[in-house]
Design a protein that fits this description.
Two copies of one chain form a homodimer.
Chain A lengths: L2 H11 L4 E4 L6 H10 L3 E4 L3 H15 L3 E6 H18 L3 E7 L15 H5 L5 E4 L6 H13 L5 E7 H5 L19 H12 L4 E5 L8 H12 L2 E4 L6 E3 L7 E2 L4 H8 L4 E5 L23 E6 L5 H11 L23 H11 L4 E6 L4 H7 L6 E5 L8 H11 L5 E6 H4 L5 H7 L4 E7 L4 H9 L7 H5 L10 H7 L3 E5 L2 H13 L4 E6 L1
Helix pairs in contact in A: 1-2, 1-6, 3-4, 3-14, 8-11, 9-11, 12-13, 12-20
């Protein structure tokens, strides 16, 4: 058995079932081992950002890591932007990167680079295997590192000779860290805040936005009057009719400040303190009021659910009925807009759908209009590195073939990782993509004014227009084997949405705004 | 005047005429300044790898740097693979990357990352501007760093507040390093080798593959019998009928070893010693024979042309007529293959064309069959980071609007930066792309055997097949506004090639192999 095979057997043995791959020469032994081992499904992406973004989507829906397989420093570089998003989502990812044979590095062949240096800014853990006999143990360590709370990007670098040299066999998974218990003082401090009679917000992230954390938060809110607010961008939110309703902190700074105005106590519950996405001249970076006291109930890596249980016990709220989101049946229709599209989607969303949203300027409409739809998971862009939507939908669909995935996707950001559509076709994934085609980087038009660059002229505005030529999303999708249709009216959108939701494979709707 | 405007004025003043951009919020002040300054053409790419690859292509054809404009760590990350190629091409690139405002970094907003850390593995020079008044001077230093021989990637990181804070005005370009003179001992050593009567090779790179270096090398070869061999992958080679013929060192290790077998002296002339692209079990990393003596006539950053002049003087070869490449008029035709396509192209290539080649398995046919075509420049993938072809062609066309660009492009690698087609349409660039559509990562099929992974099964082979579904390149091109046609026979290819070469804008031919 060679090093590569010992690694694939280690992955398989530890329950890593999927590898999102874009391999090259130095990864051929790993690829060859897949047939001999079995148990690891290898999903090909035609660009590395597809592989890393899919690994993020898979982890968010499977609650365990997939691996990637990337080719040397430049291949890793192409995957970094979505590793950044995965880290911000706190998704476990076993990021495997091939490198030149150890003895070949000194020759500085054309593809040589400092692979560890490339990995480090977007990895929580980095290791280069020394030789064939080390690979299995290093791989097991990488899996454990990825699974350590709250979920980490662990990069294992695999020199070609470590892959092809002899190994002893697979290695067992070492003990995986568990979430640290929250200190009783934190529970006591939160209890005092909630009993103070002052305006209190539970600021929710991670497990607090999923069952059973969500219902616990709902009970505490019902008992104490505390408001529930989620981070602006979240890895996964369980929401919809019958669930505990949680608003998202708005992205624009002024709206976020208004949302948090008057708050006396902010209880961080699986979230960090709210900050502005960007700095703007004359606007604050911190979004909570200066006089607000910030308390950490549970840090993202701590046992958030156990902390909510303990808090509910302290408050005698374990049996308090939480507020439930009512079913909202707004009549869809009207002219084409993100809002109308969101209403139409809310009316026809299949039960238990996975909604991936990288709608950017369209996001508020979708967040708001789908809140009373049938229960669903809502997955967002967590790190601001655009181009996550199509890969995230791909990975989510691989993780959950039993559920429909709907990807609400801005056109500008869709182009960064457009190659994901091909993987959706190849793997017959049940993803309906709605491209919100406004032929512009619409968000930048707003940001131009927000940063005070108001005196911009024609050249500057041309940098935000994608209409010369307009992208034809139906052609692009069909070019990658994905069925597609265009909608320029809401009637057409209803028909297209129906076709997409009925389809069992990938479908793309070019919604012309 | 703010920092951003002082930078744009500094670029313009130093002769940097083009900015290949994919900006975001933190770059809005730079973008806004473009209208107020003029003199810098801003070319939008829909993915950062398009911008960096185009900057490489521009530099290779304009012999001066363009700038880029990228958005924070993840935007830079998306551009790294083609910065790697640019570095290996020794192309000067002024790589400008926005970052969060200095005071915002500590808040660890979602898009925060270690931008310097991201830049370092693929930059020769990295600097973060401290404040608005530093930006112009830092920008001028970046331009000088990029232009230092033999051409460097200089990354300037621009915090948002440095962009929007006040500045004093543009800064002048500091003195730019010139190429170091080669020591007389190196000339004397090369002279001794060439007069030794032993088998000698001039191993050529950089300026030795362009006029006047090329003719000087040709004269020395004619005088002494030394062979001329170019690096396997070069930034730019001037070649074709009437020019000094130079063979490329083959990519496969066995063929490369055979090419250099029996060589007693290897004279490095603007090139590094030849090494295998990858390591393979039981094959050497160094490609020259063990007993061969390697001499550095001129390192890549030294004055290669002056060294060749001095050497020709020593050998009394300044008037010796070099061998000239004869015009080869092979009859095109036959069944569809890279070889037939190369023959057809050789027969119809417009004078002074720029040929960009990322054909991978098709490369040997194109290298060989076009060597006697009408004079042209031949641009290759230098760093092995696939996905350079379409961006490189884009940048070359921006640099030289007077010349036809032909991009010979493998299908697998084309997908990495397919977004470049949109920029070609938007800027009406005169690029004819021939996609060599073999529906596979054909090069990996060969590499699987080369690395000794012969026991690969169905799963492994599936990782190299792109036929399920097949990519429809005509649809993809049209989706981005590029006219396109398909060729499944050589007659169709001739017609399509004629249409492409007659067109004054971008055109894509899907050549079905």
């Amino acid at each position: 058995m060679n090093g590569a095979e010992s690694l694939v057997r280690t992955l398989s043995g530890a329950g890593v079932e999927v590898c999102f791959a874009n391999p090259g020469t130095s990864e051929m032994h790993f690829v060859a081992a897949l047939d001999r081992v079995g148990g690891v499904r290898c999903v090909l992406g035609l660009f590395e950002g597809v592989a890393t973004g899919a690994a993020d989507g898979y982890a968010r829906m499977a609650d365990k890591p997939a691996s990637t397989l990337l080719h040397l420093g430049p291949g890793l570089a192409n995957g970094l932007a979505n590793l950044h998003n995965a880290r911000r989502a706190r998704s476990p990812v076993v990021n495997i990167v091939g490198d030149h044979a150890t003895y070949h590095k000194e020759f500085d062949a054309p593809l040589t680079s400092d692979v560890e240096g490339v990995a480090r800014p977007f990895s929580d853990w980095v290791l280069t295997s020394r030789d064939g006999r080390s690979v299995a143990r290093d791989g097991a360590a990488a899996i454990a590192a990825a699974m350590a709370p709250p979920g980490r990007v662990a990069t294992l670098i695999l020199p070609a000779d470590a892959s092809w040299d002899a190994a002893d066999g697979p290695a067992p998974l070492p003990p995986v860290e568990t979430r640290a218990e929250v200190a009783p003082e934190a529970i006591a401090e939160a209890t005092r805040a909630l009993r103070s009679g002052k305006s209190t917000v539970l600021f929710l992230g991670g497990p607090a936005l999923r069952e059973p954390g969500l219902t616990l938060a709902g009970r505490i809110s019902a008992k104490t009057g505390a408001r529930l607010i989620a981070q602006t961008h979240n890895a996964r939110v369980e929401r919809g009719a019958g669930r505990v309703p949680v608003g998202f902190l708005p992205y624009p700074v002024d709206a976020a400040l208004k949302t948090l105005a008057g708050t006396d106590h902010l209880l961080l519950t699986g979230a960090k303190a709210p900050v502005a996405f960007f700095a703007y001249p004359d606007k604050p970076s911190a979004l909570s009021p200066p006089e607000c006291e910030i308390h950490t109930l549970a840090a993202p890596e701590e046992d958030v659910v156990r902390a909510l249980e303990a808090l509910a016990d302290e408050l005698d709220a374990r049996e308090t009925a939480p507020v439930q989101q009512p079913d909202i049946a707004s009549p869809p229709g009207g002219t084409v807009s993100p809002d109308a599209a969101a209403l139409a989607l809310a009316a026809s969303l299949p039960e238990n759908a996975i909604v991936v949203e990288e709608a950017l300027t369209g996001a508020p409409a979708f967040m708001s209009r789908t809140r009373g739809a049938t229960p669903h998971d809502y997955l967002q862009i967590t790190g601001g590195a655009i181009g996550i939507g199509p890969p995230l939908a791909t990975g989510a669909a691989v993780a959950r073939p039993d559920r429909k995935v709907v990807c609400l996707q801005a056109d500008g950001s869709a182009m960064y990782t457009v190659q994901a559509l091909w993987t959706q076709a190849r793997e017959s994934l049940d993803v309906t993509t709605v491209v919100l085609n406004n032929r512009s980087y619409a968000i930048l038009k707003a940001e131009l004014a927000n940063v005070g660059a108001n005196n911009a002229g024609r050249t500057a505005h041309a940098m935000m227009e994608l209409d010369r030529p307009a992208l034809d999303w139906v052609s692009l999708a069909r070019g990658m084997g994905v069925e597609a249709g265009r909608a320029a009216t809401m009637e057409e959108f209803d028909r297209q949405l129906d076709a997409g939701l009925r389809s069992e494979g990938p479908y793309l709707i070019d919604l012309v705004l």
